[in-house]
Amino acid sequence: MPSEAATRPLSGRCYCGACSISAGPLLTAAYCHCTDCRRVTGGPVAAFAAVAEGTVTVTGPVRHVAATAGVLRQFCGSCGSPLTARFDYLPGQVYLPVGVMDDPDALAPRLHAHAAARLCWLHIADDLPREAASSRAVILGPSPAP
User: Fold this and answer.
1) Positive or negative, the Cα torsion across 118, 84, 26, 20?
2) pTM of the model
3) What per-residue confidence (pLDDT) applies to 133?
4) CA-to-CA distance for 94 and 142, rounded, in angstroms?
């Protein structure tokens, strides 16, 4: 039986309240230690909740930024808070920063992506799987044989 967090809609907002997010339900949640995600969130590690592409609605003044090939991010046009991320290599999913969501306690990460890029002084004591690079294969499952 799915958990309540896995079946209910998600909501969130930017820092200034000009933008809101509705989405869901949760597909998965993950830490990401890559440089891009650290820069976009301003933290030593990022935590994202994944939802299906067609379930996300963002209202308010948004700005789209594609600074990295294959990655499209949305930010609040007023305060700059990160709102969504779409990765070409993770089709059909949208990633929401856990920190802007209304109930972050329900969005506990299930794995660490890009763990090889972890800052040497950051130690998160958990038993979650750690993928040295992308967690694509874990999130989407193995690619079909050609």
Assistant:
1) positive
2) 0.88
3) 82
4) 19
